[in-house]
Amino acid sequence: MVKRLLWLASLWLIPTLLWAATQVQATVSQNPVQANDGFTLKVVADGNLPSDALDTSPLLKNFIVGNTSVGQNTQIINGDFSQNTTWRVTLIAPKPGNFTIPPLKVDSMMTAPIKLTVVKAGASTKVDSIMLETSMSDHQVYPGQQVSYDVKLLVGADLRQGQLSDPKMDDGDVKQLGKDQKGTETRQGMAFETYSRHYAIFAKKVGSYVIDPPVFNGEIDTQNSLGFYGTRSVGKVGQPQSLTVLPIPDTSKPWLPAREIKLEDRWSQDPKHWKVGQPITRTLVVTATGTEANELPTLQMAVPDGFKSYPDQKDRKNYLKDGWMMAQQTMAQALVPTKAGTYTLPEVDVTWFDTLKGQYEIATLPARTVTVAPAATDQQSKVQADNSTLPPAKANADYWPWLTALVVLLWLVTLVFWLRPKWRKKAPIPSERQPKEEAASPSWQQLRQAIKSNDPAKAGQALLHWAQDKYQLHSLEALAEFFAHPPLTDAIKDLQQQRFATSSHSWNGEPLWQALNTAKPPKAPPEGSGLYARFKL
């Protein structure tokens, strides 16, 4: 009860604390206006202000000031508190001409001046209540280069309904970027609601084109001279825009137009500690700004002698960033060294055309030198060979293993009798730990069948597919890191060893299945966001 009273008291005190205005705007109901005909000046300030906070005395120089009405509005939406005060002042211009509504003081702030045109009584004052504008970032481009095409619809009336079409271009793709954005704007002192839409245009062929502009059709509310309300159909066509598509400067070179290129690689494990037979996944990622994924070349990852490579995953994606189309390609490859030594992984390069500089560039990943150590089994066999040269132990020590085994056996019998009552309780079936919706998912069912078949190749592909579908992870090492569950980590390592082993061995999928059913995913998602998180290995 006390908390509720304090909360109500705080709401009562808030209006008294928000006296000072931080934003103020002045608009007129129409422009131009007729002489000796009334129009409305509207002034809106944020905050709860007294009615006399607006000083209208500067208006008396050129206008007749009529009635002034004041209203306050308070809103609390999702805990956000807002207030505003609105003045509506009726003005009459006594004679034709060009006038300026001067800045008006509201609390401690000033409104912007408004230029006003006053025409003779009876003259037309028709103003477009609907405007449709188009603009482009470039008018000369190359094939495959992105052109940003912007559309803005301005509505100065009460819009009942409307529909805006998309621009069109022959021999080109037009794609909308993001959702429509709504805002407000002042033109000639009049307030307009704005609806902005952004497009990306990709020309395919060389030549000169005219982009067909968008068309708006809708209905607005109207009021006649007698005060009756109705609706009126309105329509607008945007301005046509011309586009010239230039020929490719050098057809002997690969063609990839972009504003920027980023080439990087990621490793599932640190290659500084590499051993023979140990699979490590290397993922190449190329990201281009201002082009489409189908323009990206296929990445080539050369492998030196002494390595075996196994393609793991390929992907091409488009996504939006800061108003530009981003094209991204990834290629993952499992690398397995077959003998110890020092190796050099060759550099990776991508030739592209910088559309900002108008010249060819080369993005390069430098060559990398790695050292592969002998496998652990080789070291163990060497130790065993050295131990074989040692003299045998004395025969009188043979009874110690038997004595040790007897002590362990007696301890196990005691443990069995102590745990026997607890075993009578029904133990949970590991496979039942998964939620019903998980058990019903197709990728989970396919994963279960692949693991039960004891085929490491099928199990690896099914596990990778499930990791992508469930958690947007693109490597098995990333899945192990994501869960941080030691039994699952060990099972995945064993699976990878079997997948990329130089010789075939039998594999039992039961430990992997048990680990998957007992692992619990962390509450927080992987580090990063959007598409970048998918390549965090």
Q: What do these coordinates show?
A:
- With 537 residues, this protein is α+β, with helices and mostly antiparallel strands.
- It folds into four domains: 16-119, Immunoglobulin-like (Sandwich); 130-245, Immunoglobulin-like (Sandwich); 257-376, Immunoglobulin-like (Sandwich); 430-535, no CATH class.
- It has nine helices and 29 strands.
- The chain has helices at residues 2-17, 376-387, 399-423, 436-439, 442-452, 456-471, 476-483, 486-499, 510-518; strands at residues 24-28, 33-34, 38-46, 64-77, 80-92, 97-101, 105-106, 109-110, 114-119, 130-136, 140-141, 146-155, 159-164, 172-187, 190-203, 207-211, 215-223, 229-237, 241-245, 257-258, 260-267, 274-275, 280-289, 307-321, 324-337, 341-345, 348-354, 359-365, 368-373.
- The strands form nine sheets. Strands 1-3-5-4 form a four-stranded antiparallel β-sheet, with no helix packed on it. Strands 10-12-15-14 form a four-stranded antiparallel β-sheet, with no helix packed on it.
- Helix 5 packs antiparallel against helix 6 (456-471) and helix 6 (456-471) packs across helix 8.
- The chain is elongated.
- The two termini are 53 Å apart.
- Residues 5-18, 378-397, 422-433 and 525-537 have low confidence and may be disordered.
Fold blueprint:
Layout: H1 2-17, E1 24-28, E2 33-34, E3 38-46, E4 64-77, E5 80-92, E6 97-101, E7 105-106, E8 109-110, E9 114-119, E10 130-136, E11 140-141, E12 146-155, E13 159-164, E14 172-187, E15 190-203, E16 207-211, E17 215-223, E18 229-237, E19 241-245, E20 257-258, E21 260-267, E22 274-275, E23 280-289, E24 307-321, E25 324-337, E26 341-345, E27 348-354, E28 359-365, E29 368-373, H2 376-387, H3 399-423, H4 436-439, H5 442-452, H6 456-471, H7 476-483, H8 486-499, H9 510-518
Parallel strand pairs: 2-9, 11-19, 20-27, 22-29
Antiparallel strand pairs: 1-3, 3-5, 4-5, 6-9, 7-8, 10-12, 12-15, 13-17, 14-15, 16-19, 17-18, 21-23, 23-25, 24-25, 26-29, 27-28
Helix pairs in contact: 5-6, 6-8, 7-8, 8-9
